[in-house]
Design brief:
162 residues, alpha+beta, seven-stranded mixed sheet, 3 helices, 22% helix, globular
């Protein structure tokens, strides 16, 4: 007969540190504004929507957002919240691709909503499709907790000098 497992405390490990391949000067800039690095390009809207950046580089940006608090009157994730998550993730990627002394401005956002989410977290993954000198385009796939795609987006940003 096997010994009973000893009582253990619930898993209280801290959340993993985001993998942000963000230049230090960008983080310093946002720190001066009092912005948490986990929401650095979500700004105040990102904070209100509960966005968290999990990974960020010019090639790929991953972030999450809770469904709760971002629902329309029928209890479904609001399409505008999904669009805001997509534009935030794509804009972060474009800004990182643009590099120091440059910024990204979204000029075209397309969103197709495939199914609804009513609870949990949604995860957005922005993947670079085109990274040019004056423009960058990202495809953003937003999935629910079970990995089902709920929204597909495409964002094109214009890249400008400061």
């Amino acid at each position: 007969m096997a010994d009973a497992a000893p009582d253990t405390a619930p898993d209280t490990a801290p959340a993993p540190t985001p993998v942000l391949k963000v230049p230090q000067e960008v983080l310093d800039h946002f720190a001066k504004l009092g912005v948490d690095p986990e929401t650095f390009s979500g700004g105040h809207l990102g904070e209100k929507l509960g966005m968290r950046i999990v990974e960020a580089s010019g090639d790929r940006v991953v972030g999450t957002m809770p469904v709760e608090g971002n629902q329309q009157p029928y209890g479904l994730l609001h399409g505008g919240a999904s669009a805001a998550l997509a534009e935030t993730l794509g804009s972060i990627g474009a800004m990182l691709h643009a590099g120091p002394g440059r910024y990204a401005v979204g000029v075209d956002l397309n969103a197709t909503h495939h199914r609804s989410a009513t609870s949990g977290l949604v995860t957005g993954v922005a993947t670079a499709v085109f990274k040019g000198r004056t423009a960058a385009t990202y495809e953003i796939a937003i999935t629910d907790d079970t990995g089902r795609r709920i929204t597909s987006c495409r964002l094109t940003c214009m890249l400008r000098d400061l």
